[in-house]
């Protein structure tokens, strides 16, 4: 069996903790949550209680710099999805983005172009 995909969750609120983490937990043979990030200390504390061995950050750039994180799930405010996904791409991460991926076609096109240009 292949190694588990090491996951970092950006946004630990309703979508991040309540959906993304729960879905990843259904497939423990495939995914390991190794890190998370939120600007709300309360959300970070809730996630730490559930994942005491994971690392948690209040700055997304620290999450993106985490060498162990292979896949970043974007579970932040919808209007931030494209910028957060682009920042994760620029850090060399694979990205899974909460819906809606973008607020308009032009923003989606920016993201799609960035993905297609990746090595």
Helix-strand layout with pairing:
Elements: E1 5-10, H1 14-25, E2 31-37, H2 41-50, E3 55-57, H3 60-65, E4 71-74, H4 81-90, E5 94-97, H5 105-116
Helix pairs in contact: 4-5
Features:
single chain; alpha/beta; 5-stranded parallel β-sheet; 20% strand; globular
Radius of gyration: 14 Å
Strand content: 15-25%
The N- to C-terminal Cα distance equals: 26 Å
Structural class of the secondary structure composition?
alpha/beta
Q: Helical element count?
A: 5
- Helical proportion, percent range: 40-55%
Number of strands: 5
- Given as residue ranges, the uncertain stretches (5+ residues, pLDDT < 50) are none
Sheet with most strands: 5 strands, parallel
Explain how this protein is built.
With 119 residues, the protein is α/β, with parallel strands linked by helices. A five-stranded parallel β-sheet has the order 3-2-1-4-5, sandwiched between helices. β2, α2 and β3 form a beta-alpha-beta unit. α4 packs parallel to α5. The longest helix has 12 residues. It is globular and about 40 Å long. The model has no long low-confidence stretch (mean pLDDT 93).
